[in-house]
Amino acid sequence: MSLEIQDLKNKILYRSSYRGTKEMDILLKGFVNNVIDTLNKEELSILLDLISVDDDNLYKFKTGTKTSILIKENKITKLFKDFNL
Predict the structure, then answer these.
(1) SS3 for the chain, per residue?
(2) What's the rounded Cα separation, in Å, for the pair 63 and 5?
(3) pLDDT of 6-56, one tens digit each?
(4) What whole-number distance in Å separates Cα of residue 37 and Cα of residue 44?
């Protein structure tokens, strides 16, 4: 595994654990831990973009409620929507 990919994984793991709301910390950390080792570099970048979305919009997206920003549907967002703790 290249150092660049490991750095990306470390950034994702950190950002998924320290969100601001405890509920999203738990949800995202569980999701990220579940999928991170199955993703390639491009998918890791998409995951980083997803976890950069604010908690409110991310929760609304997960629950199918209308968000105030556009979150593109892709493999990562589908995995996130389908993920259950």
Answers:
(1) CCHHHHHHHHHHHHHHHCCCCHHHHHHHHHHHHHHHHHCCHHHHHHHHHHHCCCHHHHHHHHHCCCCCCCCCCCHHHHHHHHCCC
(2) 30
(3) 999 999 999 999 888 899 999 999 999 999 999 999 999 999 999 999 999
(4) 9
CB contact set of 74 (below 8 Å; sequence gap of 6+): 46
Which structure tokens are listed for 70?
């556009």
Type of residue at 72? K
Number of neighbours of residue 75 by Cβ within 10 angstroms: 13
Are 50 and 31 in contact by the 8 Å Cβ rule? The answer is: no
CA atoms of 43 and 19, how far apart (whole Å): 21
